Amino acid sequence: MHSLSGADAPSAVPARPNTTFDPVETIAGADDCGLLILCDHARNALPADYGTLGLPQAELERHIGYDIGAAPLTRQLAARLGAPAVLTTFSRLLIDPNRGEDDPTIVMRISDGALIPDNAYIDEEERQRRIERFYRPYHAAVAATLDRMLATGRVPMIFSVHSFTPVWRGWARPWHAGVLWDQDPRMPERLLAALKRDSALIVGDNEPYVGALRNDTMYKHATARGLAHALIEVRQDLIGDETGVADWTARLAPILTDLNAIEDLHVVRHFGSKTDDPRSLR
Fold it and tell me: Which InterPro entries is this protein grouped with (predicted)?
């Protein structure tokens, strides 16, 4: 067993050609290391047959296109810890893998004030095409990686890496990072405690978003399987360059190593979800 180490009237959308575009990036690691790292919004790339979804390229470079800094942080953590990682390669504006297939926001028509022209009149056929071509392959890769890791006898915990924009609708968000979670407290409570030991950090507990979202990535692969998990949101100005990514890698890697040594995080336990009873989200 390995341990962790060192946008007028709608027009018909033509059928998309079956061009080659791999929607998933996988990083090899030790299947028995006890940790899988995920990055749902890693890149702002689009297949050639989708162009820029009718957007100026500058819009895709904003936070609406992807989670700035999340991919390099994921890659550096995977390399430092010898852990497997699974990342998307497509913009969240094409389809959002961190949503359930029936979620109306799985394909965004407007995002932070930007109208996405090629999403404005998307029909069910095109929605399903994107699910089949991009969304499902990512989740299949996550599921296959987890199956392979579980087959070693070492139950993995899941760490999902996201980032958030420093300013939202004119409001400067105060947190340096936030930990998102639903009902299973095992990993998030310990991660929060570890981050808060640094008095210079403002750490949000289910901020700037709430971690209970039915059929999102964590629900699908962690809650449903009873795997310990946590999602971190790091403010994008803190990981927008190589120095910031290196700093946060150095901060998070030892914490994840310590968490990996806790046997309760490698036991299947079913806590359910707040979304199982929508009244609990009020």
Answer: N-FG_amidohydro, UCP029730
